[in-house]
Amino acid sequence: MSEASVIAAHLTGARPRVVAALTHYFRDIDLAQDGFQEASAKALKHWPSNGIPINAVAWLTVAARNSVLDELRRSRRQGDLLQKYAPFDTSIENPEDDILKLLDENVLRDDILRLLFMCSHPELAPTDQIALALKVIGGLSVAQIARAFLLHAKTMEQRITRAKKKAAAAATELDVPTAIERSKRLNSVCTMVYLMFNEGYSMHSGSMPISVQLCEEAIRLARLLLSLFPSQPEIMGLLALFLFQHSRQEARTNEAGDLVPLDQQDRAVWNMRHINEAHVLLEKALRIGAAGSYQIQAAIAGVHCMAKSADETDWNEIAQHYEALSRIMPSPVITLNRAVAVSKAQSPEKALALLSEAENDLSSYLYFHVAKADFLQQLGRLNEAKKSYQTALACGPNDAEHKLILGKIEKTSN
Q1: What confidence tens digit (pLDDT) does each residue in 238-272 have?
Q2: Is residue 176 part of a domain?
Q3: Per-position DSSP letters for 73-95, written without gaps between them
Q4: Is 175 helix (H, G, I), strand (E, B) or coil?
Q5: Same structural domain for residues 61 and 128?
Q6: Helix (H, G, I), strand (E, B) or coil at 259
Q7: Domain limit, last residue, from 212, 242, 277
Q8: pTM of the predicted model over 0.85
């Protein structure tokens, strides 16, 4: 790895910690981000010749804080200081002591969690939560985020600005959370990161069926959460799930950009490093206690990754996992996934019967109609299968899914 790449990796890794500490100190997310940008510029100037500091986070935090204070002093002298910053004391002569207190491990953990919680504010739409997290914590540019969501940069900039204003109140809630409050915040953050990965894993619109960047950012955030809460089994399960799923990324599309179904993927190109790491995480999580939803989902993904071929997949085990998942987190989508497993482990007739339980709730859900059509096709009921595939087309698939469904319709006509 080149020196520039090493420095870039340090800056990327430090960003959540530095921005969290600065947000705590200044009570303003914009000042925190501006300070980090200035500190990063100084690092790029000084680190190549002076070396990367032993405590890069502390170096960047102090540099960022000093830059913000200097800018506030300059604005005050010139009379253009924004009103909301007017009460801030910029006369501190020895700023390092106060800011370094915020880098205490326990204080910083809650600051980072608070920053993540701000991005997953319940009043924000899921896509806005993800976009805000990518901007504030990931440090992605508006253009990069817009590309990930297949939107114009101006549109995405407006969405992020609105999301930031809505979530601003959460950034000022600087109370030390109780254990119960911390648990609630952590669950909310895990949900946001989970949604981020799912959005990348299966894009809902456009010509790109997968956004590798969104998946990798979600994995990075899951690693950050695990570093903050290393004994939390559900975070281990969340990261394991991501790694299992992302291990198949190279095999999920062909050269033309078309989606390749799981049973047709070239397993030789699956990422074994991801798979092995996920297995270690999952086994460790399961030893701690009762399995949660992320651990069970990771176990399901792990069964797929363990199979040497599609024919060797243990569908009975997968069906059992979905049954367990439906007990702790019942939902129509889990019923759908369980039905798919039952179709493989037992019969498409039993799968159709199970699927009927979710029909009212999933009448506009693309994958419900695809699964139903698949079961009908397996039973030789081709006209009914064709109608279900056509209903799926009306549910707004992305371009790759649209092409895949058309191929299935063609098979029912032969």
Answers
A1: 999 999 999 999 999 888 878 888 999 999 999 99
A2: yes
A3: HHHHHHT---GGGTT-----S-T
A4: coil
A5: no
A6: strand
A7: 212
A8: no
